[in-house]
Structures are given as structure tokens and as C-alpha cells.
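Input chain follows. Return C-alpha cells only.
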Amino acid sequence: MGKFHDSMLPVHQAFIKKQHLFFVCTAPLDGDGRINISPKGLDTFRVLSENKVAYLDFIGSGNETSAHTLENGRITFMFCAFEGPPNILRLYGKGRTVLPGTKEWDSYAPHFEVYPNTRQIIVGDIDLVGTSCGYGVPLYDYQGERQIMFDWAAKKGEEGLSAYIQEKNMKSLDGLPTDYAVRDALAS
């Protein structure tokens, strides 16, 4: 039976620390808009307090999380136990994007190892924590992290990564602006 809490208990925080994979889900307000679910890995997720989390987000082929949280703030994080006792943990709340070069960046970035292909930090203010059984989640063995993303970023270089953001990360699939688009519009 699922249980709900107003904040992350120490047992929730310990579970999160052990996970190598988490999922981020956001959606636009438009009922015809596309819901986005993104798998995330590496050592990029941090519990900052019992009601605040953040993760380091890398440059990718889309930027749905930024667009959706800019529009409406809704965000859900999900962790699944792929080893040991079954468990699913969901964190519900309001998210926002923190871009490099901002005052907020200076307060959040020290929690992470920042890489050349770091795009932004997503911060979540959590107002509901839910656990469920996870009996249907299969067991998997963790083998390690992939290097491909870092190799790709090294080949692109700083200018290539900036151009990629301009080409692929300025709006959502449904045409919503991302925080990068808003920043660039304000700078114009």
C-alpha cells in the first residue's frame, strides 16, 4: 500500500543516495501537449533539504523540463529499486531551471561536479513524497556509467555546444520557450 509524506524522511533520502538512475516527468498545461519523461543518471541528483532537491542537467536533444517548469512549475521525480527490496519513491513538487551565470547558479553549482556539457540545474521544491511497493519492477545489475555523452561534448567543444543549445534547446516539442529562450530574449 502506498504511503504519502509532506517531506522526505531520512529513509527516503538514504534510498535516493543509493540509486544510479532516476526519472523526471513534466507536462505542459495544454491537454494536447506532450508529457515528458526523462531518465537521468551519473552522480547528478542532490537532496538539499527535506523539501528541496536539485539535479545537474546536461545538454541534450531537447529541453522539455525547462519549458514545462517555466510554464507551470509541475515536476515529479521517480526512483525505483532495481536491486534489494522492491520500492518506488516519487517526489512531487514545483521545479525551476537555474542557468549558468546567475546568482542562483553560484549557490547551487557547488553541490555538483560541473562538466563542460552542463546545461543547467533543475531545482525542485517538494511538497509531497509517495512510496509504493515496486513489486513489478525487475532486478537489474548496475554495470557502470557511459562515457559517450562526455566524448560527444569534447568533440563539439564550447562553441559547438553553445550552437547546439541554440539549435535544439530553445523550445519544447510543443513550441513552449525554455529558460534559455527567455534569457536570450531579455538580453536582446
